[in-house]
Amino acid sequence: MLQRGFRLLGAAVGDLRLVTALLRRQYRSVYSLDRLYPDSGGTARSQDQEPSSNPSSIDIPIDRLAVTYSRSSGPGGQNVNKVNTKAEVRFHVATADWLSTDVRNVITAKYPNRINRAGQLIVTSEVSRYQMRNLADCLQKIRDMVTAASETPKQPSKESAEIRRMRVETMHRERLRQKKIQSSIKQDRRVTID
To answer: Under a CB-based contact definition with an 8 Å cutoff, are residues 52 and 58 in contact?
Structure first.
């Protein structure tokens, strides 16, 4: 009797292991977030550490983004009228601690039309009829914005600055010369009455 109880207990534990193994191996689409951005789970970082401004090492923490879906106006036929495929991603720029302060300031200055009154940057996509593709497109747009905001302008060399100064001076001289020619043409057109 005791052996039968152990067998039942062993079977129950085996079933529990099978259920947990099945739960771990859930079906995930090719477009699921953990496959598109495998390291974007919002890695823990100390608060005193400044985020990196290197665009290749930028990690967009998906848990800090507000993602909503709505009806799209893009391609898809009748599917458009039934399924919420348009993706809209928002995040508050001022409190985005995963961006450096310089990048946040540049994004605020460079994209004022995409930031609402609450200070949220809004990125939308409806290029595809699939939700996850549109979400991936939104995340790529954010990544491109951060990359563009992270770039520092190249300082001109002394030679190129001198060449530019010479070109500007030549351009001003030519403009004044053309003004004098035009002025003399108009002076010749005047009729003097005695």
So the answer is: yes
Comparing C-alpha atoms, which of 95, 146, 96, 142 is closest to residue 122? 142
CB within 8 A of 97, min separation 6: which ones?
A: 47, 51
Please state the pTM of the whole predicted model: 0.57
pLDDT of residue 75: 63
State whether the Cα torsion 59-62-64-70 is positive or negative: positive
The backbone region for 71, taken as left when phi is positive above 0, alpha when psi lies in -120 to 50, beta otherwise, is beta
- Give 125: exposed, middle or buried? Use CB within 10 Å, 0-12, 13-18, 19+: buried
Element holding 55 (H helix, E strand):
none
| 98, 150 contact by CB (below 8 A) | no
Q: What is the pLDDT of residues 149-194, one digit of tens each?
A: 988 888 889 999 999 999 999 999 999 999 999 999 999 888 777 6
The two tokens of residue 40 are 């974007």
Percent of the chain with pLDDT over 90: 40
Strands (E) across the chain are located at: 66-70, 86-92, 120-125
| Residues 6 or more apart whose Cβ sits within 8 Å of residue 75 | 129
User: Which pLDDT band holds residue 47 (cuts at 50, 70, 90)?
Assistant: very low
> How is residue 86 written in tokens?
């348009």
